Structure formats: C-alpha cells, structure tokens
Amino acid sequence: MAESAACPAFRLGRPQYEQNTFLGRLRHFIDVIDPSTLFVSEKRLKECIKLLDDYKHGTLPPGVSDLQLWEAQKIKQAIIHPDTGEKIFMPFRMSGYVPFGTPIWLNQSHNACVNYANRNATKPASTSKFLLGYAGAVTSAVSIAVGLNVLIQRANRLSPATRMIVQRFVPFPAVASANICNVGLMRHNELSEGVDVLDDKGNVVGSSKIAARHAIMETAFTRVVLPMPIFVLPPIIMSYFERLRFLQSNRRLLLPIHSAVCLLTFAVSLPVAISLFPQMSQIEVSRLEPEIAMATECKVVTYNKGL
C-alpha cells in the first residue's frame, strides 16, 4: 500500500503528479529540469522510448514496475520535444537552463535558444524567421539591460535617497523586460500562425492565434517571476556570510561564494516560476475563434503552452 502511494499507477503521456495544484506542478517540473537527464546516453534514451512503446502496444515485458515506466517517461520528456518528436539540443533543454546560464550577453543568447527549443512547435517555423527572431530577441534584451545599467551608473548625479531607489530597483525591471522581449520575439511565429488546440481525446480541433497569445503571455509571466528570488535572496544570504570571521580574513572567497549562492537561488527559482502554469494548458472554447467552436462539441480544449 505504501509503495502504491509513493508511486502511482503509470499513465502514458500524463504527468506523474496532478497538474491542477501548484505543488503537483512543482514536483513535475523538478523532474523536468533534473540536470541528471543531461547525461543520459543515446542507448538509455532508446531503451526508455522502446519501453514506453511496448507499454503503448501491450507488449511490455513481465516484471517492469510503474517506477521504471515513470522514470522512462521522465527521461523521454526531458529530451524529446512533445510536438516535433525530435531531440532538444542539450544546452537548450529546460534541464540545461541553470547549468548553461552565463553572463548577460551570452545569457540572453542562451535564453533565446531555450525559449525557441521549448516553444509550441505544432506549426513549422522557417530558418529565416528563427534568425530574425533570434537577432531581435538578443539585441532588444541586451539593449534594455545595458540601457538601464547606464541609468544606474548615472544615478550618482541624483540625490542619495533617489540614487538608492534606482540602484536597488532598476536591475529587476531590466532583466524582466529583457526576458519578456526574448520570449515574445523568439515565439512570434506562434502569434501569426497560431497553435494547435486539442479536444478531450487528444485530436487536433484547429489552430488558434488566441491560444498562442495566452501561451506566450503565460510563458513571459514566468520569466518575470524567475529573477525575483535572485534579486532578493543572495543579498540577504551574503550579508550573513560577510559577517563571518573566516570570510572577513579571506575576502577572495566572497566572489565564488556569491556566485554559488546566485546559482543555487536560480536552481530553486526556476521550477517555482515555471510551475505557475501547467505546460498543457486549457482554455474555454467560447474564448477562442468561432471556427474552433464550430469544429468541436468540447467546452474546453488543451494546448501546449511551451516552457
């Protein structure tokens, strides 16, 4: 009984944890961003895919447990894009978001590739559109961040009180605005082409630009929430470390420790941010285009929000 509670019965294509609660989504996305999946070999991936195919076709070998099936599905979902069925390049998987996050110019470039690799890919996008979106995303994101950093540097001309407010609060809107631009430009193709919406049996009902707009808005909101803990927690933690006698006599250790604290905070904030919305989101048909309502009797349809 305890094992059944700890590991629920396997459901192919469905998350192990309930997605209608924040805690369930958080547990699910902790699995999605598990960095150990970055080191899964090609042989192991093929074994997982075969195991899931055997389950689907009713030819599962005896002795395979629900835990093994959940692990196989976790590995497949971390590596294979749900829409294209193709492998996501390792650095651009959500499990690679934290390990491969680097300084601002490269970070925004990496963000752009992560946003594109984890988009809704039910509609093909040309290479030219990708390159255009990539150039626009990185340029606008870095321009916003650099522009607001210049504002911070010029804050010396302001009164002490105003300068303190600017220096403390400008970095967050700089990063948040850059992230919003990055998501919007890397996924602009969805706004023009729409995304597939599915009925309760998983059949494609049609393509909706309204659902695409919701998907991008929800993803952009997660990118606004993502940096919040990074701007709040490290200064609080470092203020404690800096009072330690050992670090006061070894000041050179402060920078690597501060970097480690920021990295750990990023690792914690990522699953929290992307858990705000389920990946497979639902929307009422009445809120979509008239042709969608005419094509199905379902009251609610599902779409891949992307990550």
Short key terms for the protein model shown above:
307 residues; mainly alpha; 3 domains; two-stranded antiparallel ribbon; two-stranded antiparallel sheet; 14 helices; 59% helix; globular; mitochondrion; amino-acid transport; Mtc; Sideroflexin 5b; transmembrane
Please state the overall shape, judged from the principal axes of the Cα atoms.
globular
Average of pLDDT: 83
**How many beta strands in the DSSP annotation?**
4
Give the proportion of residues in helices.
55-70%
Task: Report the sheet with the most strands, covering strand number, pairing sense and barrel closure.
Answer: 2 strands, antiparallel
Number of helices, where a helix is a run of at least 4 consecutive DSSP H or I residues: 14
| Radius of gyration computed on alpha carbons | 22 Å
Q: Structural class of the secondary elements?
A: mainly alpha
Number of domains: 3
Distance between the termini: 35 Å
What's the arrangement of strands in the largest beta sheet? 1-2
Question: Residue ranges: pLDDT <50 for 5 or more in a row?
Answer: 1-5
Beta-strand content estimate: 5-15%
Listing every helix as H and every strand as E from the N terminus to the C terminus, the arrangement reads HHHHHHHHHEEHHHHEHE
